[in-house]
Amino acid sequence: MTVASPALCALALGALAGALPDPPGAPAPEHFGRHLVSLAGLRGPEAAAFGPGGDLWVADTGHHRIVVFAADGLRRLAFGGRGTGRGELLRPAGIACARDGRVFVSDTGNHRVQVFDQAGVWLSAFAARGRGPGELCEPRGLALDSQRLLVADSGNARIAAWSLEGTPLGPLAGADELRRPIDVSLDALGRVWVADELGCRILRLDPAGEAPWSFGGRGAPFGLFAGPAGLGFLGTRLFVSDRFNHRVQEFDLSGRFQSSFPAPAFAPHASEGALFAPGGLAASPDGTRLAVCEPLEDRVQVFGERTAQDEGAAHELHAGVDESLARVSAGAASSAELAAWIDPETRSVDVRSEGEIDLAPLTRLGARGGLGFDLVEPRDVAIDAQRGWIHVSDAGRIWTFALRPGAGRNGFDPLAARLVRYAEFGAPSGEGPLAGLAWAFDPGPLVVLPGGGLLVADLRNAVLVRFDERGRPVEVWPAPGGKRLLRPVELVRRAGRLWVSDADAGRVWILDLSGRPLGRLEHGGDDPLLTPGGLLPLADGRVLVADRERDRVHIFDGEGRHVGSWGGSGVGPAELHQPSALLQGPEGLLRVIDTGNRRGQVLTEQGRFVLSF
Amino acid sequence: MGAGRGMLAGLALGALVLGGCRGAPPPARPPVPGAPVWQLAQGEAGTWRVRWSAPSSPLPFGEPCEVQIEVRRRDGGAPPRDLELRVDAGMPEHGHGSLRRARVQALGGGRFRVEGLYLHMPGAWTLYLDVGSAGVFERSEVALQAD
Lengths: 613, 147
Known about the structure:
The complex is a heterodimer.
Chain A: H1 6-18, E1 32-39, E2 47-50, E3 56-60, E4 65-69, E5 75-80, E6 94-97, E7 103-107, E8 112-116, E9 122-126, E10 128-129, E11 135-136, E12 139-144, E13 148-153, E14 158-163, E15 168-171, E16 181-186, E17 192-196, E18 201-205, E19 213-216, E20 228-234, E21 237-242, E22 247-251, E23 257-261, E24 281-283, E25 290-294, E26 299-305, H2 308-315, H3 323-326, E27 332-334, E28 338-343, E29 348-353, E30 363-365, E31 380-384, E32 389-394, E33 397-405, E34 412-424, E35 443-448, E36 454-458, E37 463-467, E38 473-476, E39 488-494, E40 497-502, E41 507-512, E42 517-521, E43 523-524, E44 527-528, E45 532-537, E46 543-547, E47 552-556, E48 562-567, E49 579-584, E50 590-594, E51 599-603, E52 609-612
Chain B: H1 2-20, E1 39-40, E2 42-43, E3 48-53, E4 65-73, E5 84-91, E6 96-97, E7 103-108, E8 111-117, E9 123-133, E10 136-146
Antiparallel strand pairs in B: 1-3, 2-10, 3-4, 4-8, 5-6, 5-9, 7-8, 9-10
């Protein structure tokens, strides 16, 4: 009988909850957020919805009416007006358009839903104020499928289901821990997604309204929220308006952060394309446009895909960074409690709790979260478990962060990652141990040494540099065995030994902690190593080496003999494309950062697939 | 002459009294009106002790203001000649920084004047003080309120 460890159980449960099959053919994430048009003449608009013909229906909340804009931005229709009678509205803050032409409006201040036709003619109304069946309290966002209307019943902290004819079907059972649901939406699989404004999270339910799973949390880094206020789907891309972070974030259907707009730089909020306290979202049925309500700006802005020209402007920020060096290794590190790895897409470092690696990160370092620093091209990360410090090598700098103990998952406060120090060194000067280098120090892979110092591979000068516990450079190590390093792309330490992957030399060095060579690995079976990158020494003396260009992971025994390999090129389970970092979790399973496939995989030591994240 | 001798005796008595009280804590000095109130900034790296003072609390938002910073070595040594201070501000809860970069003027002896600090919104701000020497900058933080 096999008894799974708690961490493994957590992984498996996380996989079941977070990895329901996504629709096939999901497009690759692209950056969104090109400003198309601003719609004005509104007061405090809280919600919008695209009609079947492409018109945009806006809940003009402060004017107590509905305004319809044609696709070219011209106003086509307005109806409603303040009141409690038929067709009159009080602070409408939710709207949904059915395929048959009916338009459902959350008449929020009157605690009911009213139904109109395409000409704005009143058809029906249902619900009254209360907590019982068939009653609502401050209804907000609405979502429709072919048979039912879902209502974010914000005052009752529930999602209420109704037939399209207005018969109450009861609240969804899985949504019983909401604090203030403000919007609700359905994905292509019929799953129900809820924005919980006060809970600062996104809840997902299965089509029956059960099996709750959520992601998010309160905070400024990407993946967290300060008042999620609206939801919208463009295909398999989920967009969430993050009200008090003044942005819209994009996620995949497993809740993984993909992108954010507007651009990270803070801009005066009245300018076109910038956002201030965004509220409701509407996604066009053709998957090309996203309307974002800004109630405090009295406008709705419509955004589309960013063009190559837009992207070019963003890339100018990073001119001068050698991209080929940065892409060599998507660095990663793990300790008994934490795992951390570079996300090259967002130029940030995800810090996760071991055992819950497929859930949202505990915190995300460097994602321009207003913490007074910006990572430019993070390359590797090392965890100093004793001090709770995380070191990140970046273009020209080594950053050191401290995670504070707190009430978050795994004993850390997810909002309390603070920058402790950074080390930066320009052109070599006439003093200090870096003075003899030909080029400015350019940190890449790094490891924590006993006592808190660091060993850092300098990618530009291809040397190893030792730093003391205060972050000051102490010495440059001589070339191991007299053979100059060509491109040291990975560096790991275990049990008094260091391993260095020299990618261009096709060689892995084994060194002691003072830099003396103890051996080297050069052949993976019959073939020479081509581009060794990620390294993972195991407790029994074996070491795994990821050969990036051969898409394989090789296994060497403690004597340096090649004893096996697994992987192979492909996109399927246990297949790899440019594997970079290797980690081992506390339950013994491996995590392979499968860079070319834009995923991580959890595998056994023998290369058997467990799950991907 | 007699008056002078009396004054000398008084001074001597005063000196005796002061000398006798050497072990006791000195009486608290009343704050001088208008004098800066210094507070410690919070940092974890440990090389520097950073103090700051501002003309008012909370600071006004939407207008440039000035703060004073004083940096000392924790081990009591003299500040190095290449001591550098970098200043930034942000609102972590809102995820954005300040619209303008403050100017830092070194006054010597580890003292700095920060001018043009611009907190453009009311609310909780964090002032980031990066003190560096020989390429290594250690961060201290100050929680500020702008109103």
